[in-house]
Structure formats: C-alpha cells, structure tokens
Amino acid sequence: MKHIFVVNPASGNGKNKKELIDRITAAAAEAALDYSLYITKHRGDGEAYVRSTASKGGRVRFYACGGDGTLNETVNGMAAYENAELTMIPAGRGNDFPRSFEHPDYFDNIHRQIRGKGRKIDLIRYNNRYCINMMNMGFDCAVVTNVEKWKNRPWMSGGLSYAISVGFTLLSLPMEEMTISLDNGESYDGKYLLVALGNGGWYGGGYHAAPRARLDDGLMEVNLIKPVSRLTFVKLVGDYKAGKIYENPGVKNRLIYRQCKSLTLAPKQNTCLCVDGELEPVKEVKLELQPKAVRFSVPKE
After folding, report:
1. What stretches of the chain show up as alpha helix (H) in DSSP?
2. Separation between Cα atoms, residue 120 and residue 126, nearest integer Å
3. Residue 28's domain spans which residues?
C-alpha cells in the first residue's frame, strides 16, 4: 500500500512544519515505507491532489497532516474511491476529530499511524460534499468568523482563540431563524442560538458538544439550542464544553436533542454553515448520514 502524507503548511499558524516533516521522514525510513509527501499550496489544492491520486487506482492511505479543515479536504478527495483510506496527523489549531477515539494521543505518533488498521466510519453528505466531524450554524459560525480574524497571531492556540471568540461573540448573541425538518416528520420553526450536528462528538478545540455521537452507528446527532440570556449562556457553557449538557437542569425547554438519518435546514435568509471548522455560505441544505462511507485508519494500540 502506498502511504501519502498531505501536509498543510498553514495549519497551526505554520508552526512546527519542519519538525513534522522530519518525524514523517524518519518514521517512514525506519519502516521501509512506500511513501510520498505532498505540501498543499492553497485552499482546495489538497482535495484536488487527493482525488487525482486516488483515481489512479492501487491501494493508498492518505494522512491528513493539519487540522480538521485539512481532514475535510482529504475525505472529500478520496471518499468516492474504494481503494483509498485516510487518517489524520493532528497539526492544526483545534484537532478535534481524534478526540472521538479511545486514544486520541496516538494520532500524533507516526509509528503507530503507519501500523494503523482501517475501519469503516460514517459521513454526513450535503450539497454533493461530505462532513466527517461536525456541522454548526448560528452562534458557532459567528465564533469561527472571529477566530479567522485572530488565527495568525503566533500566541493564539486553537483552544484559546475559540474561547476568546466565544466571549467576544457573546456580546452580540447572534441567532438564526430557520426551519429544521427531520426524517421522522418532526419540524421545528423559530429562532435558534445554536444548531450543532454531529457525526463526531467534538469541535472548537475541545467542546464535547455531541457526547452520544458514535462514528459508525448510522445516526446523526442533532442539538438545537433556543435563545437564552447571556447570563444563562455563561451558566451552561461549561457543561456544554464538558459533554454534560444533557444532565444540566438549566437546559429544560431550551435544548432539543434528536438523532436522525437525514434532515433539512432552511434558514430564513442566506447564512453560513460551519463544516469541520470551515465556513460555507448556504441557503437551504439537506443533510444525509452515509453509513460506513469511508475507511479510516486508527493508530495501532
């Protein structure tokens, strides 16, 4: 099997790029690996390269070396090809997707990664594209917009930038008015502070927003949070981050939690959807859970 390391030099503010490449080179040489390195040039370049390479046939594993956005590009490039599998070497700001596994720290160990084993996991399909981790609308999109403004500051880590952006966004407390229609016939119409849809369980550099998420259960996690005051938000956000929001009595009548296989989001006006940490403009969008849609390599224990 060919091993291809797709390195995003902009991830994590470009820090430690040389150290990462040196670790890859050393581990590959030690394992006598058939491998290559590809350094992405701009947004979308990694996806195009992965698609072109996977389409040539032959077993191949792509290592997305970057953040959740790099992982998203990689999965969208290879998901249509049965000969391809992927994994992630976390080198971004948030690095949330590995948190959905039993040993997230193993993802940074390239020796374990090389000896990893593939397993089929689900994806969320929308607009002829895929989400591998989480999608958000409303408050979180405003947070990510602010993160983008500050991400290039060298002292700003993923978790810190997200935390500061949450506080800044709290001043305006943005809401989205929309209709959410589930596959079981349920429909919800109104204003929402936050809509969080999960295949994986974590986002934002450590927010455990979907604690019941499983990557291979064939179900999408749905959290709809109704408008709350700033004081209530502050009281709830700690449990939301810790994955304990369902047990907090303060969310009664404020949180709608569901699991489904498909749903439609219909905002009342053009807005943004945050997909694996990247913003995309949307109007109305249908989401469908694709069971066991891609082979993902889990590092060897």
Report:
1. 17-30, 45-54, 68-78, 110-114, 139-150, 158-170, 230-242
2. 19
3. 2-123+294-298
The predicted-structure confidence for 262-294, as pLDDT tens digits, reads as follows: 999 999 998 999 999 899 999 899 999 999 999
Sign of the four-CA dihedral 156, 236, 266, 133: positive
pLDDT at 166: 77
Q: How many domains does the chain have?
A: 2
Which residues lie across from 176 on neighbouring strands?
192
pTM for the model: 0.92
Position of tokens 């993160």?
A: 147
Cα–Cα separations (whole angstroms), residue 29 to 23, 32, 33, 36, 114: 10, 5, 6, 11, 11
- Report the alpha-carbon distance of residue 9 to residue 44 in Å, rounded: 13
Taken in order 116, 117, 121, 127, the sign of the CA dihedral is positive
User: Residues 33-46: what's their mean pLDDT?
Assistant: 96
